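Structure representation.

___
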Amino acid sequence: MAVLPTDNLNLNGTVRYEDQPGRTWKIDREKGRIVGECDNWEAVRQAVEIILWTERFRWQIYQPWSGVQYEGLIGLDPGYVAAELKRRVREALLMDSRVTGLTNYAYTFSGGILHATFTVTTVFGNIEENAEVRI
């Protein structure tokens, strides 16, 4: 029994990439339960929230490219942290093919906490979000 293909394979053809449907379970945060399914804008909004809430490299259940790396910013200059946070958030969100960019990034620094607000642009519309980092 042959393990490798024995017929002539043509690998010179074009590769076609297709996005998979974005339908997913809808999470009700107040109840802490799954309450059905969602798609399109609602599914992307939920994915963006999960990406922003997940510390990158901490949880084995997520792929290494999932989440934002908030660690490593403690004790650094607030201006540097603001720029680095913007880069890290953008990098994490652009892993989702439905996200097209990050705009309207603004931040405030108060009491050792940097609070950033921004708009996530997606193929389904914009999502207003925020992130906080203790420095």
Summary: The chain has a mean pLDDT of 88. The first strand starts at residue 24 and ends at 28. DSSP finds two helices and five strands in the chain.
